[in-house]
Amino acid sequence: GAGVSQSPSNKVTEKGKDVELRCDPISGHTALYWYRQSLGQGLEFLIYFQGNSAPDKSGLPSDRFSAERTGGSVSTLTIQRTQQEDSAVYLCASSLSPGSSYEQYFGPGTRLTVT
Amino acid sequence: DQQVKQNSPSLSVQEGRISILNCDYTNSMFDYFLWYKKYPAEGPTFLISISSIKDKNEDGRFTVFLNKSAKHLSLHIVPSQPGDSAVYFCAASVGGSEKLVFGKGTKLTVNP
Fold first, then answer.
1. B-chain residues within 8 Å CB-CB of A33?
2. With the C-alpha atoms ordered B17, B4, B86, B9, is the resulting torsion angle positive or negative?
3. Residue among A7, A29, A39, A43 with most chain B CBs within 10 A, to mutate
4. Which tens digit of pLDDT belongs to each residue from A64-83?
Protein backbone atom coordinates (compact mmCIF):
# COMPACT_ATOMS: atom_id res chain seq x y z
CA GLY A 1 0.00 0.00 0.00
CA ALA A 2 0.98 3.65 -0.38
CA GLY A 3 3.07 5.20 2.33
CA VAL A 4 3.04 8.76 3.61
CA SER A 5 3.56 11.21 0.76
CA GLN A 6 4.63 14.84 0.94
CA SER A 7 4.70 17.61 -1.61
CA PRO A 8 6.61 19.39 -2.87
CA SER A 9 9.81 17.41 -2.30
CA ASN A 10 11.83 20.61 -2.58
CA LYS A 11 10.80 24.23 -2.17
CA VAL A 12 12.95 27.31 -2.61
CA THR A 13 11.33 30.56 -1.58
CA GLU A 14 12.34 34.14 -0.96
CA LYS A 15 12.41 35.54 2.54
CA GLY A 16 9.06 37.05 3.44
CA LYS A 17 6.95 34.82 1.19
CA ASP A 18 4.37 32.33 2.46
CA VAL A 19 4.70 28.60 1.79
CA GLU A 20 2.36 25.63 2.07
CA LEU A 21 3.60 22.10 2.61
CA ARG A 22 1.29 19.16 2.07
CA CYS A 23 1.11 15.74 3.70
CA ASP A 24 -0.98 12.75 2.61
CA PRO A 25 -0.99 10.19 5.43
CA ILE A 26 -1.49 6.46 5.10
CA SER A 27 -5.17 5.73 4.53
CA GLY A 28 -6.93 4.92 7.78
CA HIS A 29 -4.29 6.47 10.02
CA THR A 30 -6.01 8.76 12.51
CA ALA A 31 -2.92 10.38 13.99
CA LEU A 32 -0.70 12.76 12.02
CA TYR A 33 2.49 14.51 13.09
CA TRP A 34 4.72 17.25 11.72
CA TYR A 35 8.42 17.46 12.53
CA ARG A 36 11.29 19.47 11.14
CA GLN A 37 14.98 18.70 10.92
CA SER A 38 17.37 21.59 10.67
CA LEU A 39 20.92 21.01 9.45
CA GLY A 40 22.89 18.92 11.94
CA GLN A 41 19.96 18.62 14.31
CA GLY A 42 17.57 15.89 15.31
CA LEU A 43 13.90 15.86 14.43
CA GLU A 44 11.96 18.57 16.24
CA PHE A 45 8.27 17.98 17.01
CA LEU A 46 5.95 20.68 15.68
CA ILE A 47 2.32 19.58 15.97
CA TYR A 48 0.12 16.50 16.33
CA PHE A 49 -3.38 15.87 14.93
CA GLN A 50 -5.92 13.36 16.11
CA GLY A 51 -8.54 13.38 13.38
CA ASN A 52 -8.96 17.03 12.41
CA SER A 53 -8.13 18.50 15.78
CA ALA A 54 -4.69 19.37 17.10
CA PRO A 55 -4.41 18.50 20.80
CA ASP A 56 -0.71 19.39 20.87
CA LYS A 57 0.65 22.42 19.02
CA SER A 58 3.42 23.00 21.51
CA GLY A 59 6.24 22.61 19.00
CA LEU A 60 5.17 25.33 16.57
CA PRO A 61 8.07 27.83 16.74
CA SER A 62 6.04 31.02 16.26
CA ASP A 63 2.66 32.32 15.19
CA ARG A 64 3.96 32.39 11.63
CA PHE A 65 3.48 28.61 11.64
CA SER A 66 0.04 27.03 11.35
CA ALA A 67 -1.34 23.68 10.29
CA GLU A 68 -4.68 22.20 9.50
CA ARG A 69 -6.06 18.81 8.67
CA THR A 70 -9.24 18.20 6.74
CA GLY A 71 -11.41 15.12 6.38
CA GLY A 72 -9.19 13.29 8.82
CA SER A 73 -6.72 12.91 6.01
CA VAL A 74 -4.59 15.52 4.21
CA SER A 75 -2.71 18.06 6.28
CA THR A 76 -1.17 21.37 5.27
CA LEU A 77 1.60 23.16 7.16
CA THR A 78 1.71 26.86 6.36
CA ILE A 79 4.62 29.15 7.12
CA GLN A 80 3.92 32.86 6.70
CA ARG A 81 6.56 35.51 6.06
CA THR A 82 9.31 32.91 5.84
CA GLN A 83 12.68 33.60 7.44
CA GLN A 84 16.07 32.06 6.67
CA GLU A 85 15.99 30.14 9.96
CA ASP A 86 12.90 28.31 8.66
CA SER A 87 15.14 26.46 6.17
CA ALA A 88 14.92 22.77 7.11
CA VAL A 89 13.47 19.44 6.05
CA TYR A 90 9.84 19.23 7.14
CA LEU A 91 8.72 15.68 7.84
CA CYS A 92 5.21 14.36 8.23
CA ALA A 93 4.35 11.08 9.93
CA SER A 94 1.15 9.18 10.53
CA SER A 95 0.14 6.34 12.81
CA LEU A 96 -2.85 4.04 13.02
CA SER A 97 -3.85 5.49 16.36
CA PRO A 98 -2.37 7.84 18.90
CA GLY A 99 -0.16 6.36 21.56
CA SER A 100 3.54 5.72 21.75
CA SER A 101 3.07 2.00 21.12
CA TYR A 102 1.83 2.72 17.63
CA GLU A 103 4.58 3.10 15.06
CA GLN A 104 4.87 6.45 13.32
CA TYR A 105 5.43 6.09 9.59
CA PHE A 106 7.34 8.98 8.04
CA GLY A 107 7.14 10.55 4.63
CA PRO A 108 10.26 11.53 2.66
CA GLY A 109 10.03 15.15 3.73
CA THR A 110 9.95 18.55 2.05
CA ARG A 111 13.27 20.37 1.91
CA LEU A 112 12.55 24.08 2.36
CA THR A 113 15.20 26.63 1.48
CA VAL A 114 14.56 30.28 2.27
CA THR A 115 16.87 32.63 0.37
CA ASP B 1 18.34 21.96 26.42
CA GLN B 2 18.74 18.62 24.68
CA GLN B 3 16.79 15.90 26.45
CA VAL B 4 18.01 13.09 24.18
CA LYS B 5 21.68 13.00 23.32
CA GLN B 6 23.59 10.92 20.83
CA ASN B 7 27.15 11.95 21.50
CA SER B 8 28.76 10.10 18.61
CA PRO B 9 27.99 11.78 15.28
CA SER B 10 29.48 8.85 13.38
CA LEU B 11 30.57 5.24 13.77
CA SER B 12 32.43 2.97 11.38
CA VAL B 13 32.54 -0.83 11.71
CA GLN B 14 33.56 -3.81 9.63
CA GLU B 15 30.97 -6.07 8.08
CA GLY B 16 30.19 -9.00 10.38
CA ARG B 17 31.23 -7.18 13.55
CA ILE B 18 28.98 -5.66 16.19
CA SER B 19 27.75 -2.07 15.93
CA ILE B 20 26.87 -0.35 19.21
CA LEU B 21 25.02 2.95 19.06
CA ASN B 22 24.53 4.87 22.28
CA CYS B 23 21.92 7.30 23.53
CA ASP B 24 21.60 9.23 26.81
CA TYR B 25 18.58 11.07 28.11
CA THR B 26 17.98 13.57 30.87
CA ASN B 27 14.21 13.49 31.39
CA SER B 28 13.36 10.82 33.98
CA MET B 29 9.72 10.98 32.86
CA PHE B 30 10.54 9.30 29.55
CA ASP B 31 9.05 5.81 29.59
CA TYR B 32 9.17 4.68 25.98
CA PHE B 33 12.19 4.65 23.72
CA LEU B 34 12.55 4.03 20.02
CA TRP B 35 15.25 3.72 17.38
CA TYR B 36 14.71 4.92 13.83
CA LYS B 37 16.91 4.37 10.80
CA LYS B 38 17.18 6.95 8.04
CA TYR B 39 18.61 6.61 4.54
CA PRO B 40 19.44 9.74 2.52
CA ALA B 41 16.42 11.44 0.91
CA GLU B 42 14.01 9.15 2.77
CA GLY B 43 11.98 9.56 5.92
CA PRO B 44 13.04 7.73 9.09
CA THR B 45 11.79 4.17 9.46
CA PHE B 46 11.00 2.53 12.77
CA LEU B 47 13.50 -0.10 13.86
CA ILE B 48 12.87 -1.23 17.42
CA SER B 49 11.43 0.09 20.66
CA ILE B 50 11.53 -0.60 24.38
CA SER B 51 9.28 0.27 27.27
CA SER B 52 10.76 1.42 30.56
CA ILE B 53 9.42 -1.69 32.28
CA LYS B 54 11.94 -3.75 30.33
CA ASP B 55 15.71 -3.64 30.13
CA LYS B 56 16.15 -5.49 26.85
CA ASN B 57 14.26 -6.03 23.62
CA GLU B 58 15.45 -8.12 20.75
CA ASP B 59 14.37 -8.34 17.12
CA GLY B 60 16.56 -10.42 14.86
CA ARG B 61 19.97 -8.79 14.54
CA PHE B 62 18.85 -5.75 16.56
CA THR B 63 18.81 -5.54 20.35
CA VAL B 64 18.08 -2.49 22.45
CA PHE B 65 19.28 -2.28 26.04
CA LEU B 66 17.90 0.18 28.58
CA ASN B 67 19.67 1.22 31.77
CA LYS B 68 17.19 3.43 33.62
CA SER B 69 19.48 4.26 36.52
CA ALA B 70 22.10 5.57 34.10
CA LYS B 71 19.47 7.09 31.77
CA HIS B 72 21.20 5.31 28.93
CA LEU B 73 20.13 3.08 26.09
CA SER B 74 22.06 1.37 23.36
CA LEU B 75 21.30 -0.35 20.09
CA HIS B 76 23.35 -3.40 19.18
CA ILE B 77 23.45 -4.67 15.62
CA VAL B 78 25.08 -8.04 15.13
CA PRO B 79 26.30 -9.04 12.68
CA SER B 80 26.53 -5.67 10.95
CA GLN B 81 25.85 -5.58 7.21
CA PRO B 82 26.69 -2.92 4.59
CA GLY B 83 22.94 -2.32 4.14
CA ASP B 84 22.81 -1.16 7.76
CA SER B 85 24.76 1.96 6.76
CA ALA B 86 22.40 4.82 7.61
CA VAL B 87 21.76 7.50 10.21
CA TYR B 88 20.27 6.10 13.41
CA PHE B 89 18.06 8.28 15.59
CA CYS B 90 17.19 7.58 19.19
CA ALA B 91 13.79 8.94 20.33
CA ALA B 92 11.87 9.02 23.59
CA SER B 93 8.41 9.87 24.81
CA VAL B 94 6.55 10.46 28.05
CA GLY B 95 3.49 8.27 28.62
CA GLY B 96 0.35 10.01 27.43
CA SER B 97 2.24 12.41 25.20
CA GLU B 98 2.32 12.03 21.45
CA LYS B 99 5.51 14.00 21.17
CA LEU B 100 8.66 12.06 20.27
CA VAL B 101 11.90 13.76 21.33
CA PHE B 102 14.75 12.85 19.02
CA GLY B 103 18.51 12.87 19.33
CA LYS B 104 20.69 14.35 16.60
CA GLY B 105 21.52 10.96 15.11
CA THR B 106 24.59 8.79 14.58
CA LYS B 107 25.79 8.00 11.08
CA LEU B 108 26.75 4.33 10.89
CA THR B 109 29.01 3.11 8.10
CA VAL B 110 29.49 -0.63 7.71
CA ASN B 111 32.50 -1.38 5.55
CA PRO B 112 32.52 -4.55 3.39
1. 98, 100
2. negative
3. A43
4. 999 999 988 999 999 999 99
